[in-house]
Design brief:
The structure holds 2 protein chains of 2 kinds.
Chain A: H1 8-11, E1 17-25, H2 28-38, H3 48-53, H4 65-69, E2 98-107, E3 116-131, E4 134-146, E5 152-162
Antiparallel strand pairs in A: 1-3, 2-5, 3-4, 4-5
Chain B: E1 15-21, H1 25-34, H2 45-50, H3 60-75, E2 80-87, E3 98-108, E4 113-121, E5 127-136
Antiparallel strand pairs in B: 1-3, 2-5, 3-4, 4-5
The chains are: A alpha+beta, B alpha+beta.
Chain lengths: ~160, ~140
């Protein structure tokens, strides 16, 4: 019988907003830097005519770029030993390590350069499970992205595995 | 005739062309910069080893963006990615050759959309990332 890896005060945070709302204008050069870094040279990210021919208002962005566009700049003085920033909104768990478990995305409306995207992240779910290597925690953060016309453009669910 | 898949002729079982990726240190560093991600496991080999990784680790979201590229390159610019999901089962490392392969698992002629099943694999064939996606194909 394993003890709980989830302190009650963390469990009580399910449903809480962890980050945002943060609003960012989608920048052409940041989007293109991201596309180049991925090696995704699709003309709809680089050439206005190609984007319009494909049915977009103007240049669109790689689908997952909006997550990175919303990252808030922080000073290097808040870096931890592992290189990540100190994050006061982190959910406290009795675990050694958090791993990237996967993601689920729904894309509802196009996102184009110049759009004002607002992201709000909630703690959607926190659940202890039994695995082959012992107990682990599955943590799901859901981010809702809306545009300047209040349309929901995308939702992402990031799954973290902690043990 | 379009070079991209057509809802009129596509069938379950159709395969997507394989895409290969290999990220060296400079590519991983650029992705860290472009995604504003300072996590040390993506550029500091000694630190990655200290955390128990055999080498510098490829970012999970980079593999996610390779996955969307794999889909949109196949589907073409007039198609629209409606949803995608993946699981990260194991870590990929710097300079490893990774491959994406996939197939159509169902076709919805009414909505003009298809469901895809995709796998990212290491060279030894082990699956790093199983994935699913739904795409609305472009007008033919």
């Amino acid at each position: 019988m394993s003890s709980s890896l989830i302190p009650p005060e963390s469990l009580a945070r399910v449903g809480e907003i962890l980050a945002g709302p943060v609003t960012v204008r989608i920048d052409r050069r940041e989007s293109q830097r991201y596309a180049y870094a991925v090696g995704d040279l699709n003309p709809i990210y680089f050439d206005d005519e190609s984007a319009k021919e494909a049915g977009y208002r103007t240049l669109t962005t790689p689908p997952l770029f909006i997550t990175h566009a919303l990252v808030t700049p922080k000073p290097a003085s808040t870096l931890r030993a592992d290189g990540l920033y100190e994050d006061s909104t982190s959910v406290v768990l009795e675990v050694a390590r958090m791993m990237f478990g996967g993601e689920e995305w729904d894309f509802l409306e196009p996102v184009c350069v110049g759009d004002e995207i607002t992201g709000t992240t909630r703690l959607l779910d926190l659940d202890q499970k039994e695995g082959k290597k012992g107990p682990f925690v599955r943590l799901v953060r859901e981010t809702t992205f809306t545009n300047q016309d209040e349309q929901v453009v995308a939702r992402s669910r990031q799954i973290g595995i902690a043990r | 005739m379009s070079e991209y898949p057509d809802i009129a002729t596509i069938e379950a079982g159709d395969e997507l062309p394989v895409m290969r990726k290999r990220a060296g240190e400079a590519e991983l560093f650029l992705y860290s910069a472009a995604s504003f991600n300072p996590h040390r496991i993506h550029y500091d080999r000694a630190y990655a080893n200290y955390e128990g990784h055999q080498d510098i680790v490829v970012h999970g979201p980079l593999q996610g963006s390779w996955l969307t590229q794999f889909i949109t390159d196949w589907a073409g610019p007039r198609a629209r990615l409606l949803s995608v999901e993946w699981q990260n089962r194991a870590s990929a490392f710097v300079d490893e050759e990774l491959s994406f392969s996939g197939s159509v698992i169902s076709v919805d002629k009414v909505n003009g959309s298809v469901e895809l099943e995709i796998y990212e694999r290491k060279q030894d064939g082990s699956v790093l990332m199983p994935a699913k996606a739904t795409v609305k194909l472009g007008p033919s």
